[in-house]
# Entry
Amino acid sequence: MGLNNQKRKIKSFGKKLFSKYFGFETGIDITNDVAVLYRRNVVIKNIVFISNLLYSLVFFVLGFSVANPTTDWIFAIAALPITYTVGKLQSKLIDLDHNDLTKQQIAMYVSSFWIFISAVLVYIRIYAVGQNAPFETASYVLIYYALVQISLYQDKRLLSNSFVSLLGFITLIHIAVTYNFFTLGLTWQEFASQLFKDPILATQIGDLALRTVIFALFYLVNYIIVSIGQSIQEERKSELSKRREVQKDFSHIVRSLFNVVFQSANTLLDAKHAYRVASVANRIATYYHLNETDKLEMEKYALLHLRFDEIKDLMVETENYDEQTYEILKQKTDLGSKIGKRIQLAQKCNDIIRAHYEGNADEQFIEQMVNIQKEIPNQIILLADCYVSLRSLSTYYHPNNHPQTLNIFKKELTPYFDYDLRETFLKYNTEIDQLYHDL
# Structure
């Protein structure tokens, strides 16, 4: 058991750590474009930092295996402060203004430029300077890795604006580094004529063309994926905005209803009366042999309306809506609906007693009342409420003693209660009378 708990803690810690540094939607409102871009800048900056550490490690390892170790040690040592400086520059750009879209877009373009350039520089360093054959393919793949990093911004405009420049740049790298055509010392005319005579040169041109096509196709696939992702994101934003509008309207209606219900129910929120009802209900439930789970739930429900202060702020309108606000609103609305039901049960007690005192309790009224919260735990609370109310001072009747209350119950109130429940009450009425005196 201890080992499983330890594993769960480690897993939970890992998830929290990943969410903190690499979660694109952690703690943001996805309908806020600036907040989304800011978070993407932060996450991609963290990815770039790790990537640059990897590049520095590659330079460090190469220092043991190349012909000129002095130069390579300088490369390895210089890479670390460059990585640190770039990271600080990115942080500075990102943190200029969290709420300014233009500044966040500038940070995005600068970050994208550095992502691509750093991968190309690693390729140049390994391919052109070190001539380390085992690393050449891996270093070339880093260019495509850089494109994937840039695509994490999920911005079609960024990719479309960057395509021509990146394609031109990678083509220049192919010409100047991969095949080093400049060392041939040929004019364009000589180069063109040699192309048809020299099979090696023709093969290299064909290879360059293939690399360019693959780069363009990879870029196109990335663009399509980003387009799909951005479209889905826009749909999510639209749906969330609509949902929030509905929730806003709904919350306004709920507040209005709660205002009407709770303001008219102030007389039902008397704490002393509620605790007496809860005590009597608990005793009746014990005599009735209600199971413990239902009994505990009944005890909570009997006093639930006294938690009215927890939802008072539902009556106040607010213009600030976010996911946290809606979650709190949902919880309080749920509590408010339960309190409303509890008040309905208390109102049912008042309506029954008033109707019988005024002689208005016909069959239709009785049937209507019976169908309101007719579960046994609720009937027990209702019975306790009727008993306590009849024995308390009211605006339309004087307090009744126990025999008078019992007589009213037998003559007027038995139709509202389950047969076994009312028989239990009648059987233990003396004990309930004693309990009431002790309260």
